[in-house]
Each structure stands twice: as structure tokens, then as C-alpha cells.
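Q: What does the assembly look like in three dimensions?
Context provided by user:
Components: two
Sequences:
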Amino acid sequence: MAITVEEVFETVNMTLQHNFDVRTVTLGINLKDCMDRRTDGLCRRIEKRIIEKGLALNQHADLIEHKYGIPITNRRISVTPVSLLLEPLPKTISTAVRVAKTLDRAASKADIDFLGGFGAMVQKGTTAAERNLIEAIPSSISATKRVCGFLNLASSAAGMNMTAIERFGHILKKLAERTEKGIGCAKIAVFSNVPEDNPFMAGAHHGTGEPDFSLNIGISGPGVVRSVIQNNPFCDLTELSEVIKRTVFKITRAGELIGREIADLMGIDFGIVDISLAATPAAGDSVARIVEAMGVSRMGRPGSTAALAMLIDAVKKGGTMASGNVGGLSGTFIPVSEDTGMIQAVQSKALSLDKLEALTSVCSVGMDMFAIPGDTPADVISAIIADELAIGVINHKTTSVRVIPVPGARSGDIVPLGGLLGSAPVMRVPQKAAKSFIQRKGRIPAPMHALRN
Amino acid sequence: MTAGKKKQGSQIFIVTVTGKDRVGIIASIANIMANANINIIDVSQRIMADYFVMMMGCDIAGTDISLEEIQRRLDTAAKEMKLNITFQNETIFKMMHRV
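A: Here is the predicted structure of the complete assembly.
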């Protein structure tokens, strides 16, 4: 059956009026075979590979953008967790920083805005190289522009590495102090159950179960979903769920087509489509506004968690019908600073840190891009992280924390972070939390339901 | 010839035009297509109030010009006539609207 004029204009309006885009194409690159006992050898090989593949990614993404008329907003690279590459090298901070700088330079030469993978999987324990990487985070992330880091600190199978969680509170504060407005902290996220094929920054990396290359695609379109909800003001929630599913089906199909074609052109495996609704500071590109369009008076007030849960479920169902390769985080992000509706919710006191945590028990990621006063004690930051990761561990889902302790800021301040990172309202945090609990360190054992074998 | 125009998949592109109606919209787009040796295979248009809405199917198999250049020429026309013009391979519409 031929495509009708109405169908054509539905698609055209998605991009022209509702900011529909392919948010990111992220090329996963295996660097394990670049490993060397000498730092020079490693750096030379990874730089060559990243530049070559990064330039090809940009070239092919441009072609497909022109062919289908759907903007591909970001082209990114994720690499093998860098802690693995550091294993055979001298355990010094300067070695880790040098590798980070090499990644940064390669990304810059390939015109790639962010490169993810400066991180480690330490959910159960930490090797000497991983400990070195963690200690090198403040110097590495502050000395580079494009490198993003991640740490998997907990999982449903292994439990929670509380020694690393305790340490990370101090590391994050050091990083915040080394960068203006603590902005370096926007480039590192800590996780439970981190997906190894997630195309979105800051947590993107090319996991050890991945092939040599893999092309992953992150689609978005909160504006499109909000617009169909607004066009259906009177239908009941069952019908509304159907409306959302149908819309997400369409945008996921576009993502699948574009991802497959870029992968074909590059001669590599197509990985996954991540169907996360991801906000940007642009007007109309807000997830909070979707929840409000559903009928909640302000994001964060009672009703928000149920509405968000329904939204995410409908997004997942529409997405899985559209693509056999749905993966990554797939759901909905609720970063505070990047979403105008979330910022307004915090400013109007509808959204507190407690409610943000509650929302993340149903959203696809976690407590993302929120600012707290820079004088928040390290053990309080560790306790916030521990709470959030515990939600993931017990519920077999991914959760993450990306928090910015802004030096000198007080709760109620607004900190402009610039560009896609938006503006962060500084949230109120208690000065006392669970110091003795956090300082016990050790590992919280895996939950009972991890023993499913 | 660019890789995006390799003989793979559909060579049919859909042009859409929306904006305030005026003399010469179709003529101008048809001219761009003819100069690029692109064959127009289908046109449907309607005018709602003063608003012009057009969809044109065209076959780019005969052209040597890159997609980027065609897009650029259409963008120039869009600016001159204060219209929104899009140019997209038809596969995107099939993927999004057909199971």
C-alpha cells in the first residue's frame, strides 16, 4: 500500500516541529588487541584506530542524515573499559592520565564530541589496575574534554562494592574541585547493572562481551511523545498507553533503519537500538513535560511515579515491537539539569531529592545530572550512591548516579553548565547521613534472588 | 558518486513542501529536479486556507548529483520562497508507517 500524504507529513512534522532526532550513533570499538606492556605502544595503536574509525563514522552518518532527512545529533565512540588496557602497564596515575589524554586527542582529531569507556567493572572487587584508574579519575577527567568515565559499583549477581562506593565519594569531590563549577562530574556516572552496549554518555562503553566493532543507536523524541499525548486529552490511560506505543514504534523503526544502514556502510555489526526518551534543554524536549501532559500538575508531585512507570512501559513495548535489537538502557531518562520541566519542578519545590530517588525506581537509569552543594561531605555522596544502586541491585535493573557537587554553591542556586548539559538547580542535601555505615566498607552480598542457577 | 547513492535499496525520494501559497512553487521545485536529471513520478498537493502542502515522489536513479547538493539546492529555494522543504528517501516512511 502506498504511503499517504498524511503519513508523510506525520513523519515530516516529527522532525520539523517536535525535535525528533537520532540522538546518537555510538560506535563501539574493541581495544583489547591494542594492549601492550609499554604505554607508548598502547597509545599509538588506540589513537590510530579511533581516528580511522571515528572519521568513517562521521562520514557515513552525514550521508545517511542527508538520505533520510532525520538529524543525527551526536556521533560518539565507546571503547573497551580502560581499566583492562591498564592491566599490563605501570600502576601510576600518570600512566592512566596519559591514556586518557590519548583518547581525548584521538576523539578530537576524529571530530567526535564524546568518547566513553574510561572506567571499570568493580562490582565485586577491585584489581590493582582498577584501583589505579579510580584514583586517576580526578586528574584524567579534568585534564580531558571529551573523555567520559563510568564505574560499575554494584550488580544483582555480585552485590555492592561498598569499599569502592566509599572511595568514590572522595574521588568525586576531588574531581569537582579541579573543574570549573564541578562540571567534570557531568562526565562520569556510576552504575549498578551497567549495560555493556549503552550508546548514551556518560556511561557508554564497549563491554567485554561485544564484537570488534558494534554500531549502537540511541533514538529520542520526547517532543513527539508529548505532542501525541496532548492531542489525546480525553482518552483513558489504557488508550493513552496504546497511543504512546504506536508513536514509539514509529520512531524506533526510523532508528533501526538508520543504524542498520550506517553499520552496513561501515561493514560492521549492527548492535542495538536504545529507545530512551532523552531530554535536552531545548524547548519542548522535556520528559517532565510528558508526565505533565499526562495530567500530573507538576513533575515530582504525587502521581508522577505512576505516570512515569506507565510511560516507560509503553515506550519499551512500542520499541520491542519495532526492533529485534532493543538494548542499552531503553526507557526514559530524567536528568535534572538537561530537562526544563525537571528544573522547574525542583525550583517550585515539587521535586525533592527523595522523590527523584523514588522516580528512578521506575525510570530506566537513575539520579542523573543533579547538583548539590560543594561542601556536602564525601560520606553523604557515597550514601546517596549506595541507596540508588541498592534499588538497581534488588530490582534487577540498571540504576546510576551522576551528581555534581558544585564548589561554593548553596541549595537553591542555579548553576549554568552550558550547552546540552543545561542549568542545574542546586538541591538540598542533609549534611549528615550514614558515616559509620559507609565507613564499614566491604561488600554488601548479592541478594537472595541472585541465586537463581 | 557517493556511497549513499550506491544502487542499493530504493532510489525513490519524497519531497515535501509546506508554506504560504504563491506563484511558482511547483515550477521552481520541478526546475531543480529537471536540472539534476531527476524524474518526478508523482505529485499531490492541496491548499488549506492560504497554506500550501505538497508531496512529490521522484526517482534519483538518473542523477549524478550528490544528495547533499540536491538538499542544498532545495534549501536555497526554500529560503527564497519562505517555505519548508524536506527531501527524504521513501524507505523511512515505509519503515515508520508499515509493519
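Follow-up: Residues 17-97 of chain B form a domain with the Alpha-Beta Plaits fold (CATH 3.30.70.260).
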